[in-house]
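Internal QA ticket QA-208
Title: Verify multi-chain structure generation after dependency bump
Assignee: T.L.

Test input:
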Amino acid sequence: MNAPFRLVAAAALAATLAAQDGAPAAAAPAQAPQSGPNLPAKPFELWRPRRPKEEKDYQVAKWGPRGLPSPGYAFRAAKVLPITAAPIVDGVVLTKNGLIEAVGAAKDVAIPAGYEVVDCGDAVIVPGFIEMHCHIASESFDLNDTVHPTNPEFRTLDLISMEHDQIRVGRAGGISTALYIPGSGSNMGGFGTLTKTWAKSPEEALVRFPGSLKIAQAGNPERGSGDLGTDMMGMSEGIRMTLLDGKRYWEQHEAWQAGKGAKPKFDPTLELLRGLFRHEYLVSVHTQIYQVVLQTLQMLRHEMGLWTVVVHGEFDAYRLSGNAYESGMAVAAGPRNYHFDRATSQFLGLMQTWHDGGKYYAWRDPVLGLGRDGVGVNTDSPVVPQEQLTVQAAIGVRLGLPHEVALRALTINNARFAGIDHRVGSLTVGKDADLGVWSGDPIDPRSAVQVMVINGQICYRRDPSRPVW
Amino acid sequence: MTSPAAIACALLAFAAAASAQATAHLAARIVPVDAAPIDGGVLVEDGGRIVALGAKKDVAIPTGANVVDHGEAWLCPGFVDLHHHVSGGGGDINDMVLPLNAELRTLDVVKPSEEAVRRTAAGGVTTTLFIPGSGTNISGFGVLLKMRWGGSLDAMVLRQPGAMKVAQGFNPERGSGDLGATRMGSKELLMRQLERGQAYEAAWRAHRDGKGAKPRFEPELEQLRQVFAREVPVLIHTAGLRDCIATARMFQDVFPVQMVLSHGCFDGWLAAESLARRKTPLNLGPRMFQFDPYGRMQGMCQAYWDAGCTDMSINTDAPVVAAEEFQLQGAMAARLGLPWNAALMALTLAPARQIGVADRVGSLTVGKDADFQVVDGDPLDPRHAPRAVYIEGTLVHRLGDVR
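Actual output:
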């Protein structure tokens, strides 16, 4: 491929690249200065202490395949943004057999014989983006079986299909991994699946099942008159009782594995909850508004001890950003990306307020923000179309989020929240070869994906005469 | 040729299990399916079974045998359709009050005098699996029938139960407010019921082996017990990529039952590699193609075949496609890229093997039932209607009698 891509607003991009940081563990020089009095001194750390160290140590979750055959490619472009390392001018990314083999300056990376050189000209290469709240990895919705108030026995694993329009357009929008979760019709919609947005089959696309447990609080899951769960009290009771059953089941297993009791009888309803308490996966929570998110924090994170990620967090919930920071509860914000604060008649950026707390506007006591490592982004597609994940990030930047944090939100932050950052979320040797070749800065809504690569396979090329979007 | 009177006698008498004497059928070509075609062949039938088959020069015709010379025509096995709903006349096969109905069966619905049975036979289809509809996730048990119309039910039953019918996705999704309104809920219900059936079968087996108390008799699980004893296969109404994978996971990876995945339509062929890896038995149709996302017409059977799914049969889902157009389904598969041999196999021996009756039907083989059709040429050529159809040696259709 030799299309000479024009870099839009090259100077602006160069300026933002200058703010890129070094690897998180690296020492100070490349570290971006944290700005603002409410930003924490130490980076945000996700709380999930029991998480198994290696994929092989997982007992309940199943990991999808890695390293599937793919051709050797050398993608060369004017800019390569690895995200967890400094930007590279005139860079090369080598990929083969589904993995990234090398990332570096063109002058430093030797291209092995037999590798096809894909010259991307003035383009920008970034990691494939990660969607934390997706309902469209299947062609119809089919995601709300709402007879029971809580449904830990449901799963999206069997619904996945990747050749329908929405997911195709989504991957043409730069998204390579999605957390495909049930709807919010009941308090526990079931278990979601982490899947790539393209592969030869859904089984090859699998990243991890379960990806998360979907819990929904307030709003959508409120039940018809006469049912338990017509309000927050009843709904929280249902969530709590189901989780306590799962916790008991997990404790029985732990006791048995420690040689202190009989093997518990297999319970299909509770089995996946067991993995939740082992911190093999997260609970992704449909929660918004201050008092609802407060309940999320109290019940799910503190009382149940779950690895908790908020996957809405709208309205005035950002006022809990300090508590979320201290508790290690991350926020992948969206789809509504602003809050209109009636006290000050001002638009507040959702991602920006979570990022640097409540200091500026109506909240009287300034609170700590989550900082650049605690904020992610979602579309809740189809609420916002999947391909507009980058537009969500752009709105975040427009309303005050640092550009660098927006890029992290799309990539490494979402990957860490989902517990898949050892596979995806940055251009790093050994990670999955998921990358997007963009005509310019991906946060600029005028830019478009030219080539999309997932698991080392070119799965989309933009046809200028007939673009997908 | 036999006289018209002889044919009339045969038609009147076909309820009798076997003819009194051997009959030798001569034809220009015999296509046994499990062996190479025989030019200038003879098939000798006695007592409803094939007792000899080969070239005229190699087969001694028994003394006193009737000889029927079919002239330039070909003989090929009667077709086997594993997805057939019309042997009871059409409806009456979707009892949908409960989401799961492992206690239901079609046996009591069969109408031997049904016009549709006669038409099915006229299409060269001699064996069908008459199954309940897809209104619920387990809609009951089907019966394997010979299309010997007009006589007694006993003369038609090849095996009871023939198979359990399961339906995934689409049709069985339930009304708002019911559990099972979506795939997630219906899968959960189905898994629960299968787990109950598996435990019930294990309890009976343990009891029989002297290792446990006699289980309480549970009528709604009795038929499921046969499924888990691997005596009765499961035929699963499954279409689309998602449901194909879900079916393989459930009925191959989790529950060790004999299974056939039926339909596989729409974008189900995108799951073909996953199914090929599991050697999933496929029973494809009624829709034989899909416009793929790029607007190309994709032959369904060809897509599965090319991915390595070789255990493949074809269906009509009659009345969705008329039962007598079974041959046309095979022709469409071949038109859209399935090799001729595979298409013929998919109408005959493959379905017989999948459902476990290949010892009786599916090919012209010595020892098997003399179920065959007399065709003017290639049986996959839609211009050739069967001019005569025999079941267990008895003439059940002659061209011109219906249509």
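Spot checks passed. Chain B touches chain A at residues 173, 177-188, 191-192, 195, 240-243, 245-246, 249, 267, 270-271, 273-274, 292-293 (CB under 8 Å).
Status: verified.
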